[in-house]
Amino acid sequence: MERRYIQTKHSTNESTITKKDEFHTLFYHPLGSRENQDILIADFRELDDPNLNIVGSVSRDGRFLFVYVYDRDNANTIYYLDLNSINYKIHRRPPLTLLIHDTRAFFVILDYDHETESAIVLTDHSAPNRKLIRIKITTAMLGCAHWETLIAEDPKRALESVLPVAGDKLMVIYIEDVKTFLYVHCYKTGKLLYKIPLGIGTVSQCYGDREDTEAFFSFNSFLEAPTIYRADFSLVAKTSLLQLEQIRHRNEWRGVNVTGLEIPIFIIARKDVKRNGQNPTLLYGYGGFNIPILPSYSSHRNIFVKHFHGIVAIANIRGGGEYGEHWHECGAREHKQNVFDDFISAAEFLIKNKFTSPKKLAIQGGSNGGLLVAACSYQRPELFGAVINQVGVMDMLRFHKFTVGSFWISEYGDPEKSSEFEYIYRYSPLHNIRLPRGVQWPATLLITGDHDDRVVPSHTLKYAAQLYHYLKKPEIKLIQRNPILIEELVDIMSFLQRVLQLKWFEE
């Protein structure tokens, strides 16, 4: 199957990088055929919503084609096609049957069991932290009264993912207190069987099948590079781990924001670190799109800790998915300022508790995190010595006019609506740059991709021009480099070494 847009909206003087794609469609592409011979599967232009997104998948046994239609709020409708009814051959656009329709929730079919003619589905329907249900293909459309709950919503943990494996088992990942935990449940009843013991870190990339007796998953943490585990449900074996001496990580630190809400902060530092207010510190945040920032391995952060004797702090602020949908909603749309307040509170916590000082504190974020650090740098410039802004969303009044930006309206709001324009304008980095009084604007490194088709480069380029206009600093430079990620990381470390006046320690 092939997904593509059939209509593109852009003016003649706009580049192809900024064009807005509309009316997503799904095609069947027979192997060995030409593209113009593709057969249309799904096209919902009659709904007159150019921002719908269409995804197709086939059940494990090959009998059903499921077609997902997502709106900008990530709620979705599901249609299905019984491939057995057309003898498993597609010669023309097939008729699709409605399976689930709910404008307030998302649904993902994880498995279809031909013996019971039912499917298990992950959903947030009436369950912000998600739950697992079982539906019958023939009765699902009749509503939730005809659905069976396998794993109920847990109010204290977010159900991240579920993988059917080994015939009668489910591998279940929960996010709890900004860490992931892996459990095994019964496929038929949903009952918890046992927990797979792992350290503090993040489980991801689970692979397996109900026909197999083993499954694989990746685990990593602040100090462990991604490691592949093999699970046969009686033994968990892993490869050797990368050891980094003289480094520790702690997660019991919690900053308190202006409302008294505790903000979790992971802190990675050497064992011999002294809280004297002089440690170079890199504070990272994201805070958006229900994406949790979980423990993960980063070679350049560990270099910062080991060779610059620095501290890395990761603030799990509102807007992310660390504590479920409520945590996300508290940092979306008209509540976006909460995200900036949480991040600023984390910086104040680090300074107050003598981990660092403003002149030694750098902040880093990318994409939505770039918006975060840009907003914080103008709201509280006196708190930061340096800002690393990677492909940030800077122009909040026009973000929806480029490529996939319209899908972000559910996160940020619609700047073309007067009531939403007001709160968006109040924090838009491009429109709020002002020369600070009595303090120096923090040294700023701006990074963008000249062919980025998600956060288009005009965000960063316009922001750089606006910074120059207000600050009139001749040090602003444009450096063109080949798109090699290791060079970008070297640039970041070199920038921090210069502006924070760091010393390199060979060890």
TrEMBL record:
Enzymatic reactions: Hydrolysis of Pro-|-Xaa >> Ala-|-Xaa in oligopeptides
Cellular compartments per GO CC: cytosol
PROSITE patterns xrefs: PRO_ENDOPEP_SER (PS00708)
Domain annotation Peptidase S9A N-terminal: ranges: 8-234
Stretches assigned to the Peptidase S9 prolyl oligopeptidase catalytic domain: 300-468
Alphabetized SUPFAM superfamilies for the sequence: alpha/beta-Hydrolases, Peptidase/esterase 'gauge' domain
Gene3D superfamilies assigned: alpha/beta hydrolase, Prolyl oligopeptidase, N-terminal domain
Keywords: Hydrolase, Protease, Serine protease
E.C. number(s) listed in UniProt: 3.4.21.-
GO MF annotation, one: oligopeptidase activity
One biological process term in Gene Ontology: proteolysis
Family: Belongs to the peptidase S9A family.
Name by which UniProt lists this protein: Prolyl endopeptidase
Organism: Meloidogyne hapla (Root-knot nematode worm)
